[in-house]
């Protein structure tokens, strides 16, 4: 192999760092959308690298549904402390209390869709002109269509049929007052790449990703964690299983898989043999064929 | 991770319905890169739409409108790995209305797969895409003559398309062109060798993609470092640190190199090349690094650090091949924002030298309007100099885009001649 050539992880890392620096140079008030999941953790790690030896020059924004894994919140707060950056929290509970949104009703009610309003309100009230996300194109078919620099109109909406051309690495972040951008530095990473990178960089991730004993309920083909928000249906029963999570979202909708993988090495190995996509366990994506596209058009992550 | 750690980016091209998305679906399916839940979802949708088997194009045509209309509208990116290589695929639309999305997907590709329907042969849209691929200097082109199942796998039909394509491509600057007869629908010569075309001696598509030589595609000669931003940490430990952050566009820079900062012309020496984990001896494309210099000179975003004995040209009058990408045509003498590496200036299209007729590749200097999808050679005047190289020598420092400040849209893409 020739000497002046990067292996693929270095190439993906370099691309992401380039994108993060473009964000800093082109926008007035960018934030990282931080969910506590592995992708936003990797983006935060990349931001550290992009601006080193300076601190990460922007805030982290968390949209808190109130339906969290306690582990995620602790992890978030520890990370904020160690990085010395500002945390902005948009609270779905507050949006509900203020009457901005109404809680869904019925058996499959979640706060997933309510996040959109909270997110857009937080973007507006903090005058954010660019929200950096950990979205990856390999996650989902609508995300596969996303640009690195993805424009949102002044209602926060995505127009997938009318995206700006994006050539080479020349990113156009120009916008009018009230509009904003979503930027996805790890667009080109796969789930496998993320795990290989976490392993290589020795990045800390919440314990939820590792196999652990937990009380769960079998529902729509995955193990939903028991929590104060869970209402048992007839015939459902709480059992204790050794599970781990492939993605982290709301505690009410994130299904776990049975697993013994308790180290990053074992997880990477397990993921490489998986026959289901990581979002296969997310009931939010299963609501309809174009569930993700429809939410994204309204302003979802 | 030892031998398949090289990344190949490729794009599809060709006219509407020639089978691009089906081919990508087939490639993913036969190389076992499809997950069970994805397959189930697509089986369900195919059944709902009344298809006999699974519609492989649905793996990439993920938008609601695409599925309703059965066409690709915007680029879909897909990823897969074989024991030999990692791939990033951009599946682009064939419809002329969405040419700008095809250009988007093609601009970063190392290889283009151009599909031609064996029944229809080379048509205008095939030519347009082949021409765009050559303008973008995509180093490798694979022409897949598709739907061979519909022409009885006939060698004559295959040869006929080849001669049509070669007649056109002889006028293009493409170094590496190969031809493969395939059926995307049935899988002939995609991953597995076809049993229906004994007369074809070459390799199937996947093998071709896996073995293509790509490490010489990057310019390793001309050191170009566009400065993205300046790092000035406010900490005690790094009180005097002033790092120029950016990504190497091409070539190599080493600690101790004599450099010139353009356009100011100030010279200095490289004191250190830093990344998060520490200092490195050298930086090469496409590494993202931070560079410090021996002298305190005024450098900011948009400047370029180059080796003193190999400089690009600082130009204010630039000749480019311009692809117009917007519904509203170019306004003569209107001002646009021009972006070139990290540099951003105002620019005006001073003169349209000629427009290209896609069918004949003839140049016309009578009709100089620039509407959507037109490709013309123009002269652009910028308010301040840009440090450009010819695009054929450097894809990064030879490319520009134009933005209309009235709409903020990217309206054109240009390659420096
Ligand atoms: N018989 C036959 N049909 C094919 C073959 N490849 C594609 N098709 C059919 O051709 C039609 C168009 O295929 P697509 O893959 O959507 O074409 P496309 O090039 O992606 O079209 P756009 O993206 O809209 O430009 C579909 O009905 C396919 O099933 C083939 O090898 N043989
Ligand atoms: Mg298609």
Summarize the structure.
Chain B: Its EC number is 2.7.7.4. Chain A is an alpha/beta fold and 301 residues long.
Would you spell out the secondary-structure blueprint of this structure?
The complex is a heterodimer of chains A (301) and B (417).
Chain A: H1 8-26, E1 30-33, H2 38-51, E2 59-64, H3 70-83, E3 87-91, H4 92-97, H5 115-125, E4 130-132, E5 149-152, E6 180-183, H6 191-201, E7 212-219, E8 222-225, E9 239-245, E10 256-258, H7 264-272, H8 291-298
Helix pairs in contact in A: 1-2, 6-7
Chain B: E1 7-14, H1 20-30, H2 36-48, H3 64-69, E2 76-81, E3 86-91, H4 99-106, E4 111-117, H5 124-135, E5 140-146, H6 155-169, E6 176-181, H7 205-211, E7 224-231, E8 243-247, E9 252-254, E10 258-262, E11 267-275, E12 278-280, E13 282-284, E14 288-293, E15 304-307, E16 313-324, E17 335-340, E18 343-356, E19 363-364, E20 375-388, E21 399-404, E22 409-416
The complex binds guanosine-5'-triphosphate and magnesium ion.
């Amino acid at each position: 192999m020739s000497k002046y050539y990067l292996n693929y992880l270095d190439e993906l890392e370099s691309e992401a760092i380039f994108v993060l620096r473009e964000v800093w140079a082109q926008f007035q008030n960018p934030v990282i959308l931080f969910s506590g999941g592995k992708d936003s953790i990797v983006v935060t790690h990349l931001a550290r690298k992009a601006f080193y030896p300076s601190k990460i020059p922007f805030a982290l924004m968390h949209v808190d549904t109130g339906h969290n894994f306690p582990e995620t919140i602790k992890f978030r707060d520890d990370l904020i402390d160690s990085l010395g950056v500002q945390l902005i929290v948009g609270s779905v509970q507050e949006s509900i209390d203020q009457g901005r949104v109404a809680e869904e009703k019925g058996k499959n009610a979640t706060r997933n869709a309510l996040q959109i309003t909270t997110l857009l309100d937080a973007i507006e009230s903090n005058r954010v002109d660019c929200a950096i996300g950990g979205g990856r194109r390999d996650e989902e078919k609508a995300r596969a269509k996303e640009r690195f620099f993805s424009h949102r109109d002044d209602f926060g909406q995505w127009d997938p049929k009318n995206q700006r051309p994006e050539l080479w690495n020349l990113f156009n972040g120009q916008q009018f007052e009230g509009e904003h951008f979503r930027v996805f530095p790890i667009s080109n990473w796969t789930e496998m790449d993320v795990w290989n990178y976490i392993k290589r960089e020795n990045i800390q991730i919440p314990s939820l990703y590792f196999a652990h004993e937990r009380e769960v309920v079998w529902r729509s083909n995955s193990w939903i964690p028991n929590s104060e928000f869970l209402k048992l249906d007839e015939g459902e029963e709480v059992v204790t299983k050794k599970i781990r999570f492939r993605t982290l979202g709301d505690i009410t909708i994130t299904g776990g898989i049975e697993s013994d993988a308790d180290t990053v090495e074992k997880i990477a190995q397990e993921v490489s043999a998986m026959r289901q996509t990581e979002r296969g366990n997310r009931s939010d994506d299963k609501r309809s064929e174009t569930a993700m596209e429809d939410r994204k058009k309204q302003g979802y992550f | 991770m030892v031998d398949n750690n090289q990344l190949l980016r490729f794009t599809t091209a060709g006219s509407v319905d020639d089978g691009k998305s089906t081919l990508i679906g087939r490639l993913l399916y036969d190389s076992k890169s499809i997950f069970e839940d994805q397959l189930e979802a697509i089986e369900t949708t195919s059944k709902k739409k009344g298809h006999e088997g699974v519609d492989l194009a649905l793996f990439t045509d993920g938008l609601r409108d695409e599925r309703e209309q059965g066409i690709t509208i915007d680029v879909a990116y897909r990823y897969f790995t074989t024991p030999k290589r990692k791939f990033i695929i951009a599946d682009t639309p064939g419809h002329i209305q969405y040419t700008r999305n095809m250009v988007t997907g093609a601009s970063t590709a190392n290889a283009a797969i151009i599909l031609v329907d064996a029944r229809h042969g080379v048509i205008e849209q095939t030519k347009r895409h082949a021409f765009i691929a050559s303008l973008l200097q995509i180093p490798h082109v694979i022409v897949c003559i598709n739907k061979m199942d519909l022409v009885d796998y006939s060698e004559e039909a295959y040869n006929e398309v080849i001669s049509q394509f070669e007649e056109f491509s002889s006028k293009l600057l493409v170094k590496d062109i190969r031809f493969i007869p395939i059926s995307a629908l049935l899988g002939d010569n995609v991953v597995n060798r076809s049993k229906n075309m004994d007369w074809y001696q070459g390799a199937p598509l996947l093998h071709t993609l896996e073995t293509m030589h790509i490490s010489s595609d990057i310019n390793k000669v001309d050191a170009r470092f566009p400065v993205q931003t300046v790092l000035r940490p406010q900490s005690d430990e790094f009180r005097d640190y002033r790092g120029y952050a950016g990504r190497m566009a091409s070539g190599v820079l080493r600690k101790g190199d004599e450099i010139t900062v353009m356009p100011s012309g100030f010279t200095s020496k490289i004191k250190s090349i830093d990344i998060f984990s520490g200092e490195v001896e050298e930086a090469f494309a496409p590494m993202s690094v931070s560079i410090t210099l021996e002298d305190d000179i005024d450098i900011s975003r948009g400047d370029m650090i180059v080796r003193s004995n190999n400089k690009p040209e600082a130009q204010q009058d630039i000749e480019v091949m311009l692809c117009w990408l917007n519904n509203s045509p170019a306004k003569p003498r209107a001002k646009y924002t021009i972006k070139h590496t990290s540099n951003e200036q105002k620019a005006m299209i001073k003169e349209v030298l000629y427009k290209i007729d896609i069918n004949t590749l003839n140049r016309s200097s009578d009709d100089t309007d620039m509407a959507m999808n037109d490709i013309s050679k123009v002269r652009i005047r910028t308010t301040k100099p840009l440090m450009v190289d010819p695009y054929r020598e450097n894809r990064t420092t030879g490319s520009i885009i134009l933005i209309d400040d009235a709409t903020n849209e990217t309206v054109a893409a240009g390659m420096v001649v």
